[in-house]
Write a structure and sequence with these properties.
The protein is α/β, with parallel strands linked by helices. The protein contains nine helices and twelve strands. Helix 1 runs parallel beside helix 9. The model has no long low-confidence stretch (mean pLDDT 95). It holds the Pfam family AP_endonuc_2. Keywords: Isomerase.
């Protein structure tokens, strides 16, 4: 694996519906040492409070040791202006702290709820800092999270929140489905100075719908993006949600069928090799 990307992880959304043991085993077989746990509302199934229990934490620690893996980030997407958001996010902060996770990645909310989200984040930021965590706001991929779509949106949010425990998580793949008029490379380069985490997601167009292939098989210019990411040593994860795609209006759809583990393994290996080639020539 290339040493030029800092802590290149695999986001477990790829394994939506599979047990953690199978997911962790596949990640290790594909040649990765890090993972991002994906507990994102609306994008993966079977989310419930038991996932954040003491027994769940112990189970994850056992699996990390079993497969010689580390976890560096937690997917926390939810409506950051929604009901019970503070309680739910605090649960994730404590869970992350117990696992030694620093980056809490979360998309935002609808534009009309932006101020409520800001009020909530002003409460949560110092609490996250107390636990050694940073809330990394992610540009949205569908209309439920259009309070942050562009570099300008993200930087303005950071200015208003003005707290060291709030940063950005950049996802170029999300831009294509929500704001196809934006230039992903231009947007990424503008946001990198404000980012503490990055999602490497490629996009394949099938008609007017958005699907997520192996890195390098899509339309995003990662040959330009990856060297800039490596230069800043920003932790990153490959987010390839095989069970989900987006419609032309950005609506996310989850398939009833699980993605086969063999397919995940193949895509992860091909993605790793493609990234190494793009970085090393």
């Amino acid at each position: 694996m290339t040493s030029q990307l800092t802590q290149m992880a695999v986001n477990t959304a790829m394994f939506d519906g599979h047990d953690l043991d199978s997911a962790f085993s596949t990640i290790q077989q594909a040649g990765y040492r890090y993972l991002e746990l994906a507990y994102n509302e609306g994008y993966v199934g079977n989310l419930n409070a038991s996932l954040f229990s003491t027994s769940s934490i112990s189970h994850i620690k056992e699996l990390l040791q079993k497969y010689d893996l580390s976890t560096i980030a937690l997917g926390c997407t939810m409506n950051l202006a929604g009901a019970n958001m503070l309680e739910k996010f605090r649960l994730r902060i404590r869970f992350a702290h117990a696992l030694g996770i620093r980056c809490l990645n979360a998309c935002t909310t609808e534009q009309k709820e932006r101020q409520k989200m800001i009020d909530n984040l002003k409460i949560l930021a110092p609490e996250a800092a107390d636990y050694g965590c940073v809330i990394c706001l992610e540009n949205g991929g569908d209309y439920n999270y259009d309070a942050f779509t562009s570099a300008e949106d993200g930087i303005r949010l950071l200015d208003e929140l003005d707290h060291p425990a709030i940063a950005l998580n950049i996802d170029p793949g999300n831009m294509l489905s929500l704001c196809p008029e934006l230039d992903p490379v231009e947007q990424v380069l503008a946001m990198l100075p404000y980012s503490q985490h990055f999602h490497i997601k490629d996009v394949e167009m099938r008609g007017d719908q958005f699907w997520f292939p192996a890195i390098g098989d899509g339309v995003i210019d990662y040959k330009t993006i990856l060297p800039a990411l490596a230069k800043r040593a920003i932790p990153c994860s490959l987010e390839i949600p095989l069970r989900m795609h987006r419609l032309a209006d950005s609506t996310p759809l989850r398939s009833d069928q699980l993605a086969p583990l063999e397919k995940s393994l193949d895509i992860l290996v091909r993605s790793r090799l493609a990234i190494e080639k793009m970085l090393n020539g």
